[in-house]
Write a structure and sequence with these properties.
The relative contact order is 0.12. By secondary structure, the protein is mainly β. The strands form 2 sheets. Strands 3-4-2-1-7-8-9-6-5 form a 9-stranded mixed sheet, with no helix packed on it. Strands 10-11-14-13-12-15 form a 6-stranded antiparallel barrel. The chain contains 4 helices and 15 strands. The protein has helices at about 5-10, 85-90, 255-260, 275-280; strands at about 20-25, 30-35, 40-45, 45-50, 55, 70-75, 95-105, 110-125, 125-135, 170-180, 185, 200-205, 215-220, 225-230, 240-245. Helix content is about 5%, strand content about 35%.
């Protein structure tokens, strides 16, 4: 339940008001930005809210229960700090958002009218459209561990224990060709078998994408060695661009044995019964002595 101050309440009761909305956005890398749909800069809560070019917002939707509410914000890339490159690099994904209703003539008269996270962001020429999801969307996210045949650890983390910097799982490479965005031919990976880096991670060290990371969809060896990325890079990939690439894992027990010799740290349940076993029933002539099946 929101509490409206007496001063703001009196202002809202007037026939004419001087209201605007302000958005405080904190990215996952800690960078903080403030925007407003007013025509001049406003300042409060130690934040400068910059007037946004063409910024507009839809009505906020909400409902009883746990349905995810929210609204959309649209604007131009002329916003201070909001660039096409950062958007493509994923720096704005799931950023924290706080929305105020503010009397721009007296900024002390304000009210927080929403909190949430940036959801889907779409591009339209030199403009963007961002979905702001209410906090209830976090209730849709998995929490804790899942009972599954596959491992739920991330390759190289503390639960996994594999050394991602081991030369058996990591190497340097360079681009020799490709389509410039998602599919590249490379050098430097000749000592690794087909598929070794599928589902792995590539980090650009030189070129227009230096510092950015990309997930590898497939690693194939034929006449040339090719890497296919799940998402197109923010900037064009040029021949000679260098990168570091790390091995991928399909989370299967067999892979943990053969590729990483790391069965002691496998975080799945490879011997769990499947649907066929759960739905099975005894038949005449079967050996049903109660002993373990595995």
């Amino acid at each position: 339940m929101r509490t409206v101050s007496q001063a703001l309440g009196e202002h809202l009761s007037r026939e004419a008001t001087t209201l605007c909305r302000c958005w405080r956005i904190v990215r996952t890398d800690g960078a903080e930005y403030g925007f407003t749909d007013h025509d001049r800069e406003l300042g409060f809560a130690d934040i400068a809210f910059s007037p946004a070019v063409g910024l507009s917002a839809s009505e906020t939707t909400a409902g009883s229960g746990l349905a995810v509410g929210g609204h959309e914000v649209a604007g131009a890339f002329a916003l201070n700090g909001f660039s096409d490159a950062d958007l493509k690099a994923g720096l704005w994904d799931n950023a924290e958002v706080t929305v105020w209703l503010v009397n721009w003539n007296m900024v002390s008269e304000r009210l927080v009218i929403g909190r949430g996270n940036l959801g889907e962001i779409t591009q339209e020429d030199d403009a963007f459209r961002a979905e702001i999801r209410s906090l209830s969307h976090q209730l849709d996210q998995p929490r804790g561990r899942l009972f599954s045949r596959h491992c739920d650890a991330t390759l190289g983390d503390a639960r996994c224990g594999v050394d991602n910097d081991d030369s058996a799982y990591m190497t340097d490479g360079a681009v020799t060709g490709g389509d410039g965005r998602r599919r590249i031919t490379v050098s430097g990976l000749a000592g690794f078998e087909d598929g070794w880096f599928s589902r792995g991670l590539l980090e650009w060290t030189t070129g227009a994408n230096a510092g950015a990371r990309a997930e590898i969809k497939a690693h194939t060896r034929a006449a040339t060695i090719t890497l296919s990325l799940w998402q197109a890079t923010a900037e064009p990939i040029e021949a000679g661009d260098a990168f570091i690439v790390r091995a991928g894992c399909d989370k299967c027990f067999e892979t943990c044995i053969a590729k990483f010799a790391n069965t002691e740290n496998f975080r799945g349940f490879p011997h769990m019964p499947g649907n066929d076993f759960v739905l099975s029933y005894p038949e005449i002539g079967e050996d049903s002595d109660g002993e373990a099946l595995l």
